[in-house]
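Handout, section B. The chain below has 617 residues.
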Amino acid sequence: MSIPSMTPPVPVTERLDGFLVRHRRRVLGGLLFLAVFLRAMVGMELAGGPLLHIHEQNTASDNYFFAGWAQHLADGDWLQREPLHPMTAWMRRVAGQVMRAHPTYPVELGLAKDTAYDPKTMAVSLWDRWLGGPTYFQEPLYPYLVALTRVVFGPDGAFVFAWQLALGVLGLFLVYRLGRVLFSETVGVVGAVLGLLYAPLVVHEFVLLRDSLIVLFTLALLAALVAALERGGWRWTLFGALSGLAVLVKVPFVIFLFLALAGAVASRRCRAGDVGRVFAGLAVALLPAVARNALVGVPWLKFNGSGTSMLAYYHMADSRPYQFSIGPGYADILFKTDGRFLPALREAIQTHASLWGFIRLSLAKVLYSLHGSEVPNNVDVALFRQAAGTVRAMPLPFWALGVLGAVGTVATRARWRQLWPLYVGVVAALPTLVLASFISRYRLPLAAALLPLAGAGFVALLRWGEARRWRALGLTAVLAVPYVAWASRPLLDFGADSPAAYYQGQGTMALRAGWPDFAELNFRESLRWEPGRAQAHLGLGDSLLQQGLVEDALPELRVAADGMTSGEPLLLLGRALLATGKRDEGLAALREAVAREPAGSTIRQQSEQLLSLPGGP
């Protein structure tokens, strides 16, 4: 009797890949629809709130400067012939330190006839010099795109957000494409899904900053490089042109360009003629900016004036790996070096006790770039989570991308000759973090480059599980657990003793600036970290009162009154109770405020004044 042949079962991952290939259009259409739908949901939740207006109200933010820069261009000065840069409080403080320590410095530079100059005016002139005069403050492509949007559609930032959101959807398609071409259909789909679940990618599409554009160019350059390596010809010219545009978004993209060319030449997949095509495309893309620089009399290839003098403060002995801070010695560095980049960097390094101190700081930046926290700077992912439930529903932390990306790299190491472009994308994202500091928006290109590798890692874990490769899974867990334990801990000092204190301080500043709805988000985030923080309850109650939400403010003020010894929460509580018709409770709260406050205090005087009004308050 013959025994029937037994065919081995097809692995689940292969069956899944076959299904996704057969239904490619439907699956891809569903992914793109979901990407659009999620962005529409976030937009509706944010509409009417403060986060879409940071570029209008927060005058100390980069967002505000980009809006002003774009408006300046749109008003007609397309060549930007005069110096144009922000003038924030810390910049005025640094210039003031220089003038107080060296009052003759502006005279020696020829900026003033004598020391009778006006300090406020001279502070602007000094920064004009340190930032290179009419040199672009930062790379120009993004503000020009915003300016063109304003000319065509008007000044509403929503029009900019619209094309940023569209480019975000395109970026997810490029993630899918990279995963599909370099790995498999399943990896492409998983990579795109991971991109949908990583909230910072969407959040940064709703702010007037160039970071979403940087993400797109990271993915576009990877896709163009892979296509050029596979098919050559005009695709090298396209890669060069995209590289030139990317440099006009952020100069460190030049690192990506040269690493990519080095890898292509070393792998013998790029001939001399191809290199020529790359540089031809690069030259064409850079030509308008080079011509502008020549016309206004600044160095032809200098597209960023801020990095020349401002990067020094990221490398001083008192600099922090993940915190923007201006040390007391920075003003002296500007004075000694006149804002020149290499001398300023050398002076910053010399503030360390030894060269090892500088190296340790740089290594710490790389290490913290793998941390799970999203460190705020001009945009705060945590506040978007407060304002939009859809953002809260995007659960993927960065450390998950790190784990999956590492697994994908190890699992596919035998194919490194085909996958090295992804490694270039990851490595090229690190210099910005080392040159500056670890903050969420600087890490976005790293997250984007990791997505295809993370998709490969997820699929590899599925295969190991199906094949019962317990040793591989166990080793992965052993290595991942300590990393996750470290990466999931909150970073405790954003310039305060705790995250709760940081957000409370941000809320207080927003209240003082007359921005109560933004203050509300900050106080709620403070209370998320520390629910019993009475001062944050007081700030939240005050911000709600200023928005006319009296009933919502009452419970917050009661908690603050119970947790504080001052009469301030009772004064606000008394006013709120009286406004809602609860006269007896309101009077009792005001009397308690008087009892808590010393004679002569403002709070006591205001409480007594309310109590003494004719006929009652």
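Note. The mean pLDDT is 93. Compare this with the example in section A.
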